[in-house]
Amino acid sequence: MKVGLAVGHSRLGDQGAYTTGSYILSEWDFNRDIVRRISSVLSVDYKIYDQYPAKSYVGGINYLARKLVEDNIDAVIELHFNSAGPSASGHEWLYWHTSKGGKKLASILSDEMSASFPDMKARGAKPRTRNQRGSYLLRKVRPVAVIAEPFFGSNEEEWDNINHNRGALVGVYARAIERFAGG
After folding, report:
1. pLDDT tens-digit profile of 24-56?
2. Domains of the chain: which residue ranges?
């Protein structure tokens, strides 16, 4: 099995959301660091995608979809973090509503996150349909796909917890990928 580790907001000029509090970081910068850390501990074959040479969302996803096919990727996780009001909290894992593999990978990620961060609100594995946030990526790419939203960067306490426990978050991703790859 070959896994794609895609950094969300990798199109030209896009940094994604920003964290809040005393240490502010963009979604792209944070997840680029996490992807590199994940890759250093994986035993499965992987490829990192962190630069989509497109300015639009659709152009970026179309580029990624082509690259995933060219590289024979079996499953891809696009790493993000959520942002909303300062009290929004929890982790969620988005997949295309008809994808059994997507549901399985999203559920494994959710379970691993809950085990590693038991005090964090589990929003669960969530199916997406047309016109919902993230749906274009999830339906456009051929391999099994999940959009990872492991915390709210807009929640200062949640961000502080994740930032000081990046190794635990890396472990969540790595264990989930290994479990998924193992069947």
Report:
1. 999 999 999 999 999 999 999 999 999 999 999
2. 2-181
pTM: 0.96
- pLDDT, tens digit, for every residue of 57-86? 999 999 999 999 999 999 999 999 999 999
Angle at 15 between CA 167 and CA 63, to 5 degrees: 100
Hey, is 86 helix, strand or coil?
coil
Q: Which amino acid is at 28?
A: W
Q: CB within 8 A of 48, min separation 6: which ones? A: 4, 5, 6, 7, 35, 36, 39
Residues 92, 149 contacting (CB under 8 angstroms): yes
d(CA 140, CA 49): 16
- CA distance linking residue 155 with residue 25, whole number of Å: 13
Q: What are phi and psi of 77, to 5 degrees?
A: -120, 125
SS3 of 116, please?
Answer: helix
Predicted confidence (pLDDT) per residue in 109-122, tens digit: 999 999 999 999 99
**Residues in the chain, total:** 183
CA–CA separation, 123 and 16 (whole Å):
21
Q: What's 2-181's CATH class?
A: alpha beta
| DSSP conformation class of 26 | B
Can you say how many angstroms the Cα of residue 124 is from the centroid of all Cα atoms in its chain? Answer: 14
